[in-house]
Amino acid sequence: MKFFLICCLWIFSLQAAIAVLPSRVNIDGTWYTNGQTAYIKCDKTNVNVYIDLVVIPGPSFLKISVSPSSNFTVSSTQSDIMKTLNLDPSRQNGWIDVAHVGISGNIRVYIQQKPPTPSISVETNICAGSSRSITATSNYDFQSTHPIQLVWQTYGGVTVNGGSSFTQNGTSSTVTIANVSNGSYSVKAVIPSCGNLESAVVNVKLGPPVITNPNYWLFDPGSNMWQFSQTSGGPGVTYTFYISSGSAILNPQNQDCYITTSSGATICVTGTNSCGTGIPYCFYLPPAGGYLKTVYPNPATNLLSIEFEGDMSSEIVSFDLILYSEKSMEPVKRLVYENPVAMDSFGTNQKLEIDVKNFPRGVYYLHLIPNPNSKLPVQKVRVVLE
Fold first, then answer.
1. DSSP string spanning 215-252?
2. d(Cα 299, Cα 293) in Å, to the nearest integer?
3. Each residue of 19-35: pLDDT tens digit?
4. What angle (nearest 5°) sits at the alpha carbon of residue 84, between those of residues 83 and 86?
5. 49, exposed or middle or buried, with CB in 10 Å at 0-12, 13-18, 19+?
6. What would the pLDDT profile of 270-314 be if each residue is shown by its tens digit?
7. Measured distance CA(189)–CA(149) in Å, rounded
8. Are the C-beta atoms of 325 and 362 separated by less than 8 Å?
9. Residue 113 — pLDDT band, cuts 50, 70, 90?
10. Rounded to 5°, angle at Cα 282 from 354 and 342
């Protein structure tokens, strides 16, 4: 009975030991837990990674397993609980997953040689004709050996300390940002001693909101419902969606919107903040089925006309139009809608024309390929030349 109890206790202890993930990992002499970031000196090419020794019953212990991001490698094992992590030669950031060999589950620590992204003291807007003192800070651990600079840059009608750029040594920099006629400013941390290695850049737009990174795609083909999204323009911004032409049902979701249209519509969105309302961004959504309305005459002899649905403008629609030969399956004609040569007739009567009189007679296939971001299907029409 005593032997049975000892065996049970041994099995329980073994299960308890192998069920526990590494609670922390030491990277280059400092301990980190799951989700933390390890900042490493920019001149290092590799670092030691090790964990606490976890003894299991019997003459053995749990070994370390390190799985890095693709830009890192693990080249050698110095011991069963320590490995050597080779860093990115270009000093790109990455991560490592640390676990025990043969045990599922891991903790992740992020590895960064670039300086931390600066934080700024205020994010409130500065309207045209106003200025404000702004402080940027980068909490860099190696200032004594690899000092950083904070580099400011302005764009449009914005100045920093009266100019377009300003650089200050140290982990903190206070400047005067003036908005003369709207624009933006940026700040980043730079390590001159490591080839001007840069942090991520903080960009701040001033004045009325600008619609940033707009994107729209077909969300539900059955109802021709589209989803529009963008990058939010900061605190205190409200967005207004409206129908410029056609008909649609709008369901705004803050800076995004769900849009349902059966016959096609042009939708516009504006942002408003304490400095006013920004320039509208407008985009065209085709009716159910896509942009293409009809191709005629078919059969054709000299001229092939392609008509489109709705009221589209060259600034808001993007597609390729390709004519393939059935015999060779090679493209014989391609029109990119941004091509200025094709825009005159399109802008006048929503029609493009292809001169086909010199093409060999036979069967062709016309493909209308929408912008991939729209997630619309390719529309295909069989065309006969005679």
1. EEEEEETTTTEEEEEEE---TT-EEEEEEEEE--EEEE
2. 17
3. 468 999 999 999 999 99
4. 145
5. buried
6. 999 999 999 999 988 888 777 788 899 999 999 988 888 766 554
7. 6
8. yes
9. very high
10. 15
Pairing of β 46-50 and β 82-86: antiparallel
Mean model confidence pLDDT for the chain: 86
Beta strand 281-285 with 265-273: parallel, antiparallel or unpaired? antiparallel
φ, ψ for residue 8 (rounded to 5)?
Answer: -60, -45
Least Cα distance to 118 among 148, 146, 91, 88 occurs for 148
Instruction: Say how many CA atoms lie within 13 Å of 320 toward its Cβ.
Output: 12
Bridge-based pairing state of the strands 303-308 and 319-325: unpaired
Strand partners, 380: 367
Measure Cα distances from 279 to 27, 269, 337 in Å.
49, 9, 24
In 10 A of CB 5, how many CB atoms?
A: 9
24-43 residues labelled b (16+ CB within 10 A) or e (exposed) = bbbbbeeebeeeeebbbebe
* Residue 215 bridge partners (DSSP): 229
Rounded-to-integer distance, Cα 126 and Cα 204, Å: 10
Chain centroid to Cα 246, Å, comes to 31
CB-based contacts of 246: which residues, under 8 Å, 6+ apart?
Answer: 261, 263, 264, 265, 266, 285, 310, 311
What is the residue type of 112? Q
190 touches 197 (CB < 8 A): yes
Amino acid at 85: L
Entry pTM: 0.69
Q: 43 CB contacts (<8 Å, ≥6 apart)?
A: 146, 193, 194
Determine the length of the chain. Answer: 386
Tokens standing for residue 222: 């059955």
